[in-house]
Each structure stands twice: as C-alpha cells, then as structure tokens.
Design brief:
0% strand
C-alpha cells in the first residue's frame, strides 16, 4: 500500500535526480533569465504535492501521517539540499547554487498552496 500511493512521487524524485546529474553544459543555452529557477520551483512544488498526497493516503505506516506536512516539507527540502551538494562535489560540470535551494523553497510553498486549494485545510490524520 505504501509504494502504491507513493510511486508517482518516487518517480518524480528520480526524474529530478536525473536532471540534476546531467552536465551543466546541457542547460547553458537558455534564452530566458532565471529559467532554471522557475524549473526548480515547478519540480519541487510537484514533488511536495505528490509526496504529501501519497503519504496521507498510505496506511501502512500510520506514524508518518502524524505531522505529515512538516515531515514532507523537511524531506523535500533535504532532498534538494543533498542534490545541490552532489552537484557541487560529485556531478561533473555542475555547481552549488544557493538560489536553487531558495527556488526549491518557493516551489514547496506553491505545492503547499496548491494542496490547500485542492484538498482544503481539514485534518487528514
């Protein structure tokens, strides 16, 4: 049950990992300023939304559902920070950009607002 409700969020996280591991030269020709920041916000907003809904729907680990919004926020934020560190120290042609982490936070905020607009503010656990 856990995996069934979270397969989309895990797949989305894998997509973010793959995009983060690509060499930086793949993204240099963007004609739009801050296009990468907008992409970060979208990717992490969708990840937050998918993971939050999946964690709420899953029933295998009830302890996860306690303070689920905070837990998902921390998971997604740490995931973004870890990927930034990997870009700086492991992935070739990439670097650590603090503004990417800020864009991730903006995306998480948009994901949270989207969740509230779709599902409302009632308690889910």
């Amino acid at each position: 049950m856990f995996l069934r409700h979270n397969v989309l969020s895990f797949s989305w996280a894998l997509l973010i990992f793959i995009l983060s591991a690509l060499p930086g030269s793949q993204f240099e020709d963007s004609t739009y300023p801050y296009a990468d920041k907008v992409l970060h916000a979208i990717l992490y907003g969708v990840l937050f939304l998918l993971l939050l809904v999946g964690m709420i729907k899953q029933k295998a680990f009830e302890w996860i559902r306690d303070k689920v919004k905070l837990k998902v926020f921390l998971i997604v934020l740490l995931y973004g920070i870890i990927l930034e560190l990997l870009q700086g120290y492991v992935f070739q042609g990439r670097s650590i950009e603090p503004l990417d982490i800020a864009a991730n936070l903006v995306g998480i905020g948009f994901g949270f607002v989207t969740f509230l607009l779709i599902y409302g503010t009632e308690k889910y656990t």
